[in-house]
Amino acid sequence: MPQEGRRVQAINDLGSLGPRAKAAAPALLQVLDRKDDLLCGPAATALAKIQAEPDRAIPALTGCLLDREGRGRPDVVEALCEFGPRAQAAVPLLVKLLADRSSKDIVAAVPTALKNIDPDAGAKAGVK
Predict the structure, then answer these.
(1) Do residues 64 and 44 touch, judged by C-beta distance below 8 A?
(2) Which residues form the domain of 84?
(3) Calpha distance 63→88 (Å, rounded)
(4) What is the CA radius of gyration of the chain?
(5) How many domains does the chain have?
(6) Which of 2, 68, 105, 116 lies at a 20 to 30 A Cα distance from 74?
(7) pLDDT tens-digit map of 36-70
């Protein structure tokens, strides 16, 4: 298995441990800070499952929300959704992402996240 594949698998394995993997949160946050297109999604998913350090995780997730092409990352949107109302700071960017039609996954993920994080802001943006 190539090195990148091993990294993705290791991150997925950490996420599968859920809250028992809290000690791994700082390393996952570092992965998000690098904004690696291959690793951001798995790291975001793992952080959402672990639910550790929301005060650090949510800004890191928000910073990793867009890929290098300016498109939304569905896994990151879904991770923010898992933090619920604590992810309020991401709402303005999520509202902007309502216009992103780059994939069916992002089209589905953004309205769901807005409903879970801030239903009023979602409704004002036209989310039903």
Answers:
(1) yes
(2) 3-124
(3) 14
(4) 14
(5) 1
(6) 2
(7) 889 999 999 999 999 989 999 999 999 999 988 88
